[in-house]
Amino acid sequence: FTVSLDLQNDSEINMTLIDAAGREIISHQTKESAGVYSKTIDANSLNLSSGMYWVKIKYNNQELCKKLIKD
pLDDT digit string (tens) for 28-44? Predict the structure, then answer.
């Protein structure tokens, strides 16, 4: 699962992986320069159980949620 963002200016990015029960699995924070930012989450390396997860991304006063389904 890959998330790509087009950052208009330098940004602090908070990315959180949440399971279906609302528990935080991992959290990643970084500061990035303007331009394209890309982050890959490898569900297999995290030893996730099968199911649905949410990836919540906060940056520049915006918030995105993406669904991730692990078979």
Answer: 999 999 999 998 888 77
